[in-house]
Structures are given as structure tokens and as C-alpha cells.
Design goal:
The complex is a heterodimer of chains A (168) and B (101).
Chain A: H1 3-24, H2 28-48, H3 52-76, H4 97-116, H5 131-139, H6 143-164
Chain B: H1 6-26, H2 30-52, H3 59-89
Helix pairs in contact in B: 1-2, 2-3
Chain lengths: 168, 101
Amino acid sequence: MSPLVIAFLVLALLTCGSALSMLWTKNLLHAALAMFLTMLGLSGLYVLAYADVLAVAHLLVYVGGVLILILFGIMLTNQTDPATGKNHLMTRESSRLFPFSIGLSFFLGLFWLFTKGPWINNLPVTGESKLREVGLGLLTEYAFPFELAGVFLLIALIGATFVAKSHD
Amino acid sequence: MTDIPVIYFLWVSAFLFATGLAILLLKKNTIFVLMGIELILNSANLNLVAFSKNDPSLQGLYLSIFVLVVGVCEMAIALAIVLQVYRNYRAIEVDQFKSDY
């Protein structure tokens, strides 16, 4: 096995394992930590798919932004247990059988579809980093959507602060 | 140096999608449900990135950058809404949001 495949296996194991522990745990804070590990593994996978721009952006946005937002959300909506006066951040669940079987059947169906598909079977991910092409493309061909995405982000953040303030 | 086949990325992405869907169905806490949605978005992103390497015009990569931006906006707005809902109902779990009138 080449070192690239070994790196892929380690990162895939990190991603899938922490996603699975996110599914398994009932503790909200443990799930946020597991989501952090999932995003770390995912950005490694992006690097292995030669998308290093997206990997760095993903790391900045998810670990630096979304995870902090989620932690603030958890802190601002905590509820102490009235019986014991403690807060273990446990979430309730519906019956485990139904969601697990649906998730498993989706995974097996997609796995079967991807494996049987003649269109992708032995297509290798080839090439090198396309950093230069992506930068040029974002400022020439895709300049308008890029600016639009920036304005959209600004509108969303202003809207979020407006929605989150107390309307008394 | 042998490169990684696309199909490996697709398997990981299928696993992430299934896990996100199961989280969406299983958990009652609203913030947990939002985390499941993030997993599903990222599994779609992984597919786009894996396929765009065989495309010389890199359309999948550009689309995945915009998916990232939209995902962040969705998360910020959704958490603000969750906060406001918590102020009104004093509850965070999806089956406790019941109107009085």
C-alpha cells in the first residue's frame, strides 16, 4: 500500500469513527467535540483530493466559526435538571431501532450504487494542487457569484444578530 | 505514487450522509439536529471535491466553496432562531414546542 492510501485510511477512520460517536453519544458537548474531530478528518480528506483551498477554508470556517457558534448555542440554552440541580447536557432520543435501520439501509444502498456504478469504478483522483487556477477563476469567471456569496454572508450575519437580540 | 480512487471518497461520503440522517431522526435536541444537517452538507461537499479532480474546469470545487458559505449562513441563522425559540418556549427539544393557543 502506498503511503497516500494509508493516510487516506487513517483520515477516513478518524472521520467515520467520530461521526459514529456523534451518533452514539447522548451528551451534547461530547457530540460537539466529536464534530470537531470529524471536521478535522474531513479537511484532511479534502487535502488528499487535491482541494487544499477548500481544506483551509473548511478548517477556518468550521473549527473557528461554526463550532464556536454551536458551543455558544449549547451554553445559552442549557437547562438544569430540577431534581438534582445538575446539568449533564444529556439529550433525549427517540427509539434507536428506527433511525439506525434507516441510516444503515441508506448507507448500504449508496454503497451498492457506488460500487455497481460503471461510470466511476476505477477512476483515480489525479493531478496536483489547483490553487492558482482556483484563485484566478474566483476573480475572473466566478467573480460575480463570489461577490454575491460575500454579500450573502454579510446579510446572513446581520440578520442573525437581529433575530438573536431580545425583542421586548 | 498511486493516487486514491474516487470510489473511496464516495464510500466515506455515503457513510457521513447515513450518519447525518440517523442523527437527524434520532436526536431530540435542536442543536444536535443542526449538527446532523452539517454532516449531510459536508458529505455532499466531499462528493463534489472528489469528482471535480477529473474535471479540468473545476466546477465541483467552485460549487463546494459556495456550499460552504451557504452552510455557514444557515448555521448562524438557525442558531439565532433556536435561541429565540428557547426564549419563548423555555425548551430546546423538538417535541416540546407546543403552542398555547
